[in-house]
Sequence to fold (277 residues):
Amino acid sequence: SKTKGRNTISFFHQSIQEAADARMFLEKELRSAIENQDFILYYQPQTDRFGRLSGSEALIRWEHGQKGLIAPDQFIPVAEEAGLIVPLGIWVFRESCAQMRKWLDNGLDIQHISINVSSKQFRQQDFVDQIAEAIRQYEVPASRFVIELTEGVVIDNIDDTVKKMRALKHLGVKISIDDFGTGYSSLTYLKQLPLDELKIDKSFVRDITTDFNDAIIIETIINMAHNLGIDVIAEGVETEAQKDFLYNKGCRVFQGYYFSRPMTSADFEVWVRKGER
Ligand code: C2E
Ligand code: CA
Ligand code: CA
Ligand code: CA
Fold:
């Protein structure tokens, strides 16, 4: 009926309105969370096949007063769209520098911290200057940091990418391509870039022991990267079988729940000290 139709339409509008309101509210909350620095970095070990540490990845969480810890997938996309990723990304890098400074002062040899950098942040004109400034201010070696960029970010504006990557390399910062294999970049493209590492996405690792195609893709990535002199790390390693399979294909660095979940810096330190004994 007509009435029913009208109700459907108004319900439709209402739900759009509600979604928009919720989004606005989240954005507002996020804005003040950034002002108050209501975030925490978790650290996940990167290891050799025996679980010996070779580095770490910093993964952000929002410490929300009412909702508890909020995962990055719940707010990073909103932060990107609202332009808040720039101040948030700067906080992440500075916080990582402060953490590395503490680890060095306490005699903890954490080889590096890998940091996720979003497209909007990387495209800022002063991106490299911000990195250089933080490194200088916290007096940490640039070689202790790895910038993780996704394929999409890298190939989106290749001239700007090359320029910034060279500047980062000049500082001594390392560069990794995150979620590798999920984008559309070819290794021919990538060989023109000063890359240190390719990170195989967990979607390939998940089915590696059962999906013949994923196994072939991984093997190809590993061989080509090594021929180009680029290191390979696999993320999302959850089982011994996955780890062994990857190792047999030539992968030497692993990250995933099989070795450890991401942890607070305090738990991470305990984990590292245990491994040192
Ligand atoms: P990512 O960079 O691909 O990070 C890997 C994600 O996989 C992390 O989720 C990590 O906790 C999770 N993970 C680690 N090991 C395993 C495993 O064995 N199995 C499975 N299923 N998952 C595993 P998390 O911490 O929720 O982060 C999600 C995404 O949020 C990250 O994906 C990254 O794209 C983004 N992100 C995290 N921190 C930051 C940040 O500081 N800045 C920016 N721009 N993005 C960030
Ligand atoms: Ca990452
Ligand atoms: Ca990934
Ligand atoms: Ca990612």
User: Anything to note?
Assistant: The radius of gyration is 21 Å. The beta strands are 39-47, 53-64, 68-70, 113-116, 145-150, 174-180, 197-200, 231-234, 253-254.
